[in-house]
Design a protein that fits this description.
By secondary structure, the protein is of the alpha+beta class. The protein has a single domain (2-80), classed as Mth169, Chain: A, CATH 3.30.1280.10. The protein is built from 2 helices and 3 strands; from the N terminus they run βαβαβ. The chain has helices spanning 17-28, 52-67, and strands spanning 2-10, 39-47, 73-80. The protein has a 3-stranded antiparallel beta sheet with strand order 2-1-3, with helices on one face. The termini are close together. The model has no long low-confidence stretch (mean pLDDT 97).
Length: 81
Amino acid sequence: MVTAEVKIELKEGIADPEGMNTEKTLKLLGWDVEKVETGKLFEIDLGNGFSEEEARNEVEEMCKKLLANPVIQTYDIEIKS
């Protein structure tokens, strides 16, 4: 089975209100944190019959068409066999 992990993060310089709010709340609760950033992690099982290159190309299309907003987000794809 071929599985892809897709990590999606905000681009540098894009405001992350959820991360900032979480950071503020953690500090109010007594934790000493420097920075909190939010993102998404997708684990996609592609089944069998894909080479690593085919799987990467397929998931790249998923990211471009649905999973990520290229204006404000970056993504990283890791293929696992």
